[in-house]
Amino acid sequence: MSNNLALKKGLDIPVKGAAAREVIKTVSADIVAVKPTDFKGLVPRLLVKEGDHVLAGSPVMADKMRPEILFTSPVSGTVNQIVRGEKRKLLAVLVKADGKQESVDFGAKAPETAADAKQLLLNTGLWGALIQRPYGILAGLDVTPKAIFVSSFSTAPLAADTDFTLDGKLLDIQAGVNLLSKIAPVHLSYNKAVEASTLFHKVENAVLHVVSGKHPAGNVGVQISHIAPIQKGETVWTVSPLLLAAIGHVVNTGKLDLSRKVAVTGPAAEKTGYVCCYPGTPVKEITPVMQDVRVIGGDVLTGENLGAEGYLGFFQDQLTLLREGYEREWFGWAKPFRPKVHSASWCYFSWLTPGKKYDMDTNLHGGPRAFVETKCFEDVTPMDIFPIYLIKACLAGDIEKMEKFGIYEVLPEDLALCDYVDPSKNEIQAIIQKGIDLMIKEMA
Amino acid sequence: MADEKKPGLFEKGGKLYWLHSSIDAFDTFLRVPGTVTAKGAHVRDGIDLKRVMIMVVIALVPAALFGMYNVGLQTSTLYNLDWGFWHMFWYGLLRMLPLFVVSYAVGLAIEFGSAQIRGEEVNEGYLVTGFLIPLIVPVDVPLWMLALAVAFSVIFVKEVFGGTGMNIWNPALVARAFLFFSYPSSMSGSSVWVSKTWVGALKDVDAVSAATPLAIAHDGGMAGLDSAGYSFMDMFWGFIPGSTGETCVVAILLGALLLVWTGVASWKIMVSSVAGGLLVGWLGQLAGATELPCYYQLVMGGFLFGSVFMATDPVTAAQTETGKWIYGFLVGALAVVVRLWNPGYMEGMMLAILFMNTMAPLIDHCVVSAHTSRRAKKALTA
User: Fold this and answer.
1) Nearest by CB to B163, which of A347, A370, A406?
2) How many alpha carbons fall within 13 Å on the CB side of residue A327?
3) CB–CB contact A429 B41 (8 Å)
4) Best label site of A160, A178, B318, B377, fewest CB within 10 Å?
């Protein structure tokens, strides 16, 4: 039995450079990074020193406040370097891979109780895969979530196709769902567009939801807000399908395998396609990066600017390459036609060419202003909230109003399209994150 | 150090850096800034406020062009000058030009000055305001009055609140209201609507009275309109005395089409405002307050111009979609209420919009409160 969820509002941003469903290469990197910055709300404590030998699944760091939460190496090898930034902030642990990929044996056994399930997640370093809402932080240890949500697909621009990246991993996914369902009921959604072919509709032991609509219909937060909105005092967890399969793999084989197919996408990518590698692989080994090109770990709306010298993040299964938009177009705003620029607004003529993909760059296309247009936010936010009021409450730091206007239901990614469409060029995601940070501080 | 680049004249550290707001304004007017995204979404929509504002200006162009022609037409008809089409248009254009120049010069000077003081970029909101103001005042209004009104409204209605996007009232309408209450003799009555100041032959001729149909209908009803020779179609096409931009329904509807098409202005406000005006006009007819059919209210005075270009200002209108229906309806209804049940002052649109600008946050507050309490109830039952 599955439930239908058809969302009307939203926007698919037509960026050029989708990845075809083929693996273009497999990278076994020499150096792999474990980055504490991948996890929101983590204050890391280092567990290894340079020269230590680690296996795939050996802990390299833990949460300072909750030392049970471990973060493990994805590969076997030797700890090569501890990278620190300002004020000795731990930025990354670099592991020199030995190429043998020996793994800690966690025992191939399905956990019987919630406590066993949690313990396995903690030991393997996959606890970090659980994201707790509200606030989008590391899952709490003694929290019993209302439910665990998995959105099996992403509608984000050029996102990796999970039916391709997880092809053949149905058993792992099922084992992952079984494990999580010991902790709380699991809700899994899949895309109506691929209803007949998707491997996810065969998953058992979970409440299935069929979702259709433009981006952000694939965002788990948007789905939650329609399936079971988060109220004050409630918590839910979410897991990405990629890491759900990794959880299941540990259950089935006893070994940690974080390898993944990463979609290399974007108009500035030399070659698009999928690359097999581990998280923490240097960007340069995954794809060549040219001058003045931004490498984004993730999609163009919510991704992280990794830099050409960066490393693929724990959660990421996509790289997007974009030209930096330093060029200055003469009379850009006044030209009747700007065929190279996309606009969701009908003030330009993009609506005439709905199928066209654009060679987008990172130009802001304007200067920051006060809020003027407001309906544009509502048009791309398929949730039962007033985006502009939530945004203003966050700006004002008014806790009570943030609560009233739905701060518990959103993460910045759910309002990422507002960043895109706003003619006043406000940084909506940053504003929401600031609001969330304030909530965490005040409600603690 | 030798290889250290010296800052440019207008860059930070340069001698004329203090002028950077103004320089940036010209620079970004000519070329899209080369700024790249620093946080949040890495790609952005091509739209910016300049584009939004220019759309409104383009939407105003048909009304402005017709208005120029009509300025000449009214003068020519009233004083039996027998001008040709281009003569009429040319006269109107020349007559309107100083109004535009003064409106933009004074308004932009203040905008640039306050942007300098705040060290921010110059906002483009005045592009629209500056275009609107000459269209909603009598064409012969003395330029110094116009300058004063513009200065008042830009400083006290916009800049003190923080500039474009922060104001409570529509600045163009406040400029008009300022003129109306400070210099009523130049703003109302029956001799201000037809221009004669620039016609040499009329130098010593006394101004002939030419009341607007709205005023005539107010005093004389249907019979008054008939004896003045104003038919419904005259008013629909706009061959009547009035503020320059407000007379031609067709030109305003063309603008409305563009605004609705591009999504810059809310069609909900336009539709509900017209509905409000029609309803009250109809009730007024039933109650005997007027003998005019309700649709006459739409074609007389500034009703339609206000509904399309003024009430829909996204900054000062209601911001919630439900709120827009309520806000628009009340604008239209109140405007006609003032027209029908007010002995002295027949053009209610200006005050109706300004009043509803004031009430818009309250409407939004009610809509949002209703929504949040519904959400809270849903949470309890879930």
Assistant:
1) A370
2) 9
3) yes
4) B377
CA distance A436 to chain B (A): 15
What is the arithmetic mean of pLDDT over A229-252? 94
The DSSP code for A177 is H
Question: Is B48 an interface residue toward A (CB < 8 Å)?
Answer: yes
Mean pLDDT over A414-424 rounds to 94
Q: Do B55 and A347 touch (CB under 8 A)?
A: yes
Tokens of A32: 């792999």
Name the token pair of A270.
């030399």
Q: Which residues of A touch B378 (CB under 8 A)?
A: 229
Q: Assess A403–B contact: CB distance below 8 Å, yes or no.
A: no
Question: Quick one: average pLDDT of A38-43?
Answer: 91
Integer angstrom CA distances of residue A222 from A151, A213, A228, B316: 10, 11, 10, 30
Could you tell me which of A288, A253, A284 has the C-alpha nearest to residue A270? Answer: A288
A9 C-beta neighbours (distance < 10 Å), count:
16
ipTM (interface pTM):
0.90
User: At A260, is the secondary structure helix, strand, or coil?
Assistant: strand
d(CA A285, CA A308): 10
Contact B20, B91 (CB under 8 A): no
Give yes or no for a cis peptide into A134 (omega within 30° of 0): yes
Query: What is the C-alpha to C-alpha distance for residues A19 and A161, in angstroms, rounded to an integer?
Result: 9
Q: In which residue ranges of chain B is pLDDT below 50?
A: 1-4
Q: Does A1 contact chain B (CB < 8 Å)?
A: no
Mind listing the domains of chain A with CATH numbers? 4-18+107-253 (3.40.50), 31-97 (2.40.50), 261-323 (3.10.20), 364-443 (no CATH)
Phi-psi map region of A70: left, alpha, beta (phi>0 left; psi -120 to 50 alpha): beta
Tens of pLDDT along A327-357? 888 887 878 888 888 999 888 888 888 889 9
In which residue are the tokens 């709120």 written?
B323
Place of tokens 């259709």: A212
